[in-house]
Design a protein that fits this description.
It is built from 7 helices and 5 strands, in the order H-H-H-H-E-H-E-E-H-E-E-H. By secondary structure, it is α+β, with helices and mostly antiparallel strands. Strands 1, 2, 3, 4 and 5 form a 5-stranded antiparallel β-sheet that branches.
């Protein structure tokens, strides 16, 4: 799963054939991987395992994604604490996106468990956004859909995906005055952070004793 382009399903398929490490994939005959994964995917996975990537390098290209992770001090069983961590991460991602003039079209949640296994899920957003509440809502939905209940979680990470310049993205207009108010408050928070530092303002729900903080 450390290979770019290898998701959970592909990783499980490879592991079922004993190809459970990058080294074993690199040593496997290309024809074997193509038979297991299909011609195109098998070829790409074999090349990536051997350090071959023909993708052109574009100097100073804009980032396509950005992420942040929180590692808990101990394996976390409390869903409320995990939600507070997600709130902090989403708030951090939104601020970074707005600061760089970008918006995200998708959000990915990665949960790492006590046994070091991981679960990754991606959700397309309703529209390109860098709005903290929208990112938080998507993060909560991804977390709830996993149905973790009493899972022992070691860390959670959020990644804003499929980024584009904010001025190139259309924003869905809303007639809800609370939505406009939320955006105005967010702009005020951004100004306060720009003047007094990133730690000047945080969502109230994260100001709980022992609150997790984002680790970029």
């Amino acid at each position: 799963s450390a290979l770019h382009g290898v998701g959970p399903a592909t990783a499980r398929t490879l592991s079922a054939y004993g190809l459970d490490s990058v080294g074993r994939i690199a040593a496997a005959p290309p024809a074997t991987l193509q038979r297991i994964l299909g011609a195109k995917t098998g070829r790409v996975v074999h090349e990536r395992a051997r350090g071959i990537d023909p993708t052109p390098v574009v100097p100073n290209a804009a980032a396509r994604s950005t992420g942040a992770e929180h590692r808990f001090a101990h394996d976390e069983l409390d869903p409320a604490r995990r939600r507070r961590a997600l709130l902090s991460l989403a708030d951090d991602l939104g601020a970074r996106l707005r600061g760089s003039g970008q918006v995200a079209r998708a959000l990915t949640l990665t949960v790492r468990y006590a046994d070091r296994s991981t679960t990754t899920r991606t959700r397309r957003l309703d529209g390109p956004t860098a709005h903290g509440p929208a990112l938080t809502e998507a993060a909560y939905a991804l977390h709830a859909a996993l149905g973790l209940q009493r899972a022992r979680v070691r860390s959670v990470a959020l990644r804003a995906e499929d980024l584009c310049r904010a001025e190139l993205a259309a924003r869905q207009l809303s007639f809800d005055p609370s939505d406009d108010k939320a955006h105005r408050i967010e702009a005020a928070v951004d100004r306060a952070r720009a003047r007094f530092g990133a730690d000047a303002v945080h969502p109230a729900a994260t100001l709980h004793r022992g609150t997790p903080r984002a680790q970029p």
